[in-house]
Amino acid sequence: MSQLPDPASLPCSPLDECCGLKYFPRMVAKIRLHAQGKLWEDLHANLGKGSDGACVEFLHVNYDDLKARALQGGSDEEILNWCQEQTRPLNDTDKLVWNCYTAKLGWNDHLSAILAKRKADGGLSDRDDIQTIAHYIDVDEGRLP
Q1: Rounded to whole angstroms, how far apart are CA atoms 145 and 140?
Q2: Which uninterrupted H or E stretch holds 17?
Q3: Phi and psi at residue 66, in whole multiples of 5°?
Q4: Residue 2: which pLDDT band, with cuts at 50, 70 and 90?
Q5: pLDDT tens digit string along 64-87?
Q6: Cα angle 91-15-131, degrees, rounded to a multiple of 5
């Protein structure tokens, strides 16, 4: 685990929700913090990629368009509503599928090896309780022990 960052430089947990959709508040917070020059440096490389990329693909919006909309201002809810106006409204099943994906990412799937490497690089290989990317992020960013 890298040195704990200043909490003011961190977005919320990947499991936080906006209108019943996990991860979206984190992505928007990263956009805002980066624009203010406050985002933790370790998060810069994956802006618009990784889970950000998966989220915008799920929403069927372009990351740069979302970024521009987020920087115009408004609440997370307003920005999520804008996304749905651009493409399609999300129903309860859409949200369930996305939320399950987000909550279990890294657990026996295509990102398991990446999770294992991150844990090893961060000195957390012995932490069998960290089984998902979201849990690793919350530990890495100091929200969980």
Answers
A1: 9
A2: strand 17-18
A3: -65, -45
A4: low
A5: 999 999 999 999 999 999 999 999
A6: 120
